[in-house]
Design a protein that fits this description.
Elements lengths: L2 H13 L5 H4 L2 H16 L12 H7 L9 H17 L5 H20 L26 H17 L4 H33 L5 E6 L5 E8 L2 E8 L2 E2 L3 E4 L5 H6 L3 H9 L3 E7 L5 E7 L10 E7 L5 E8 L10
Antiparallel strand pairs: 1-2, 2-3, 3-4, 3-5, 6-7, 7-8, 8-9
Helix pairs in contact: 1-3, 1-6, 1-7, 3-5, 3-6, 4-10, 5-6, 7-8
């Protein structure tokens, strides 16, 4: 999920600690629970420091080892120890550890529901895992958790934990419904393209809007569904081979994209000066005019890589919402 959603989740998670009488009666302990919950909800994304080495390094490592199962107790232990030390609350360290661990777990599991995915089974499996069910920023979930915070502020200490617990009950039910709905839509796409070799369905910003990619023997079929309506689809033939495409495979940007992509696709064109421009993308992340997640490699006439770049070429509010 996006950073704002992770912060909201951390705040409402901390609110459930008010069910403990010791937390409800001690504002200092309540503040400590809030601190570990929010920090735990943000900790896996501290891998953003890798951005200092460039976009390529960041995209290669983001949602990798920092999100992996072995990292969960490490993050939680470090956060709980820091907060307990600052606040002199070693007696409550187990509670602080539990809420930090819950924050980390909720962060990773919510990332799992997105289409971008997460490598939380590292180092045992390098596979990117994704449920393709919920957008990176989900307006409904944000509204539910904001409403819980406002309700808790208005309702007082006694009512506050119930607002937060209610928000999490709604979140769990909503996630279950979205995952089940995704499975239903994916079956519809498979029935339409019975000979498809692979099918990917990604969520739109609105509940009943989905976009899909189906790989067939003749190429790729891309389209959208709005409720029960099939919206206009388009066909993309399989990529033509060329020496410049093969040469581009040795670039770091292409290796990063191919290590992540489920449906890698390469296209090329010859520039006016005779150079080649090779573009690699993951076809799952398509939109009407282009593929916003791509690696671009420029090669000279001797097929030497002279420039490369990788990243997202879209605004945060533009599709696809991953």
């Amino acid at each position: 999920m996006d950073t704002g959603t992770h912060v909201l989740f951390g705040v409402t998670l901390a609110g459930t600690a008010l069910f403990f009488p010791s937390v409800a009666a001690d504002s200092g302990l309540a503040a400590a629970a809030l601190a570990v919950s929010v920090l735990g909800s943000l900790a896996p994304d501290f891998d953003a420091v890798v951005r200092l080495k460039g976009k390529d390094a960041y995209l290669k490592h983001h949602r990798g080892i920092s999100h992996a199962l072995p990292a969960w107790p490490v993050w939680a232990g470090a956060i709980a120890a820091l907060v307990a030390w600052i606040g002199g609350m070693w007696a409550h360290a187990p509670l602080l550890f539990a809420y930090a661990l819950l924050g980390v777990a909720i962060h990773v599991l919510s990332d799992w529901t997105n289409a971008y995915g997460v490598q939380f089974l590292l180092p045992f499996r390098r596979e990117w895992l994704h449920l393709d069910a919920i957008c990176l920023t989900d307006p409904f979930l944000a509204a539910v958790h904001v409403a819980a915070i406002l309700g808790a502020l208005a309702g007082g200490t006694a009512a506050a934990p119930w607002f937060f617990a209610g928000a999490w009950a709604v979140t769990a039910a909503y996630a279950g419904w979205r995952i089940a709905h995704h499975a239903v839509v994916a079956r519809r796409v498979r029935r339409r393209y019975r000979r498809a070799l692979a099918v990917h369905v990604l969520p739109g910003l609105w509940w009943f809007r989905w976009q899909f990619l189906a790989q067939t023997d003749s190429g790729y079929e891309m389209g959208s569904l709005a409720g029960k309506r099939w919206l206009p689809c388009k066909h993309l033939p399989h990529a033509d081979s060329h020496a410049c495409i093969e040469a581009s495979r040795r670039s770091s940007a292409v290796q990063t994209l191919r290590g992540f992509a489920k449906r890698a696709y390469a296209s090329w064109k010859e520039e006016a000066n005779g150079d080649y421009l090779v573009t690699w993308t993951d076809l799952r992340f398509w939109r009407e005019r282009d593929w916003p997640y791509r690696a671009e490699v420029r090669l000279d006439r001797q097929l030497n890589v002279v420039a490369e770049d990788i990243g997202w070429h879209k605004k945060a509010w533009e599709a696809p919402y991953v």
